Amino acid sequence: MKIRFNENEEVVRIVQEGLKERGGYCPCRMESTDDTKCMCKEFREQIRDPDFEGYCHCMLYYKEK
């Protein structure tokens, strides 16, 4: 398993700017809770799934099998 940034540098830049503005909370979510703090709960659960391969919700990270 490998987790990497999105290969699209523009997406990475935009999402990282949003994270900075929101104090580390996902810029794609309305609420600011422990579950939406980057790396969000949803992606942490996807990481634990051995069959999951893909992007996190905001497209910042990609999990490879």
The N- and C-terminal alpha carbons lie at a distance of 5 Å
Task: List segments where confidence is low: pLDDT < 50 over at least 5 consecutive residues.
Answer: none
| Helix-and-strand structural type | alpha+beta
Radius of gyration: 12 Å
State the order of secondary-structure elements, H for helix, E for strand.
EHHEE
Into which percentage range does the β-strand content fall? Answer: 15-25%
Average pLDDT reading? 97
Architecture blueprint of SSEs:
Blueprint: E1 2-5, H1 9-21, H2 41-48, E2 54-55, E3 61-64
Would you kindly provide a written description of the structure presented here, covering whatever features stand out?
The chain is of the alpha+beta class and 65 residues long. The chain has one domain. The chain is built from two helices and three strands; from the N terminus they run βααββ. It has helices at 9-21, 41-48, and strands at residues 2-5, 54-55, 61-64. A three-stranded antiparallel β-sheet has the order 1-3-2, covered by helices on one side. Strand 2 (54-55) and strand 3 (61-64) form a beta hairpin. The longest helix is centred in the N-terminal third of the chain and has 13 residues, at 9-21. The radius of gyration is 12 Å and the shape is flat. The model has no long low-confidence stretch (mean pLDDT 97).
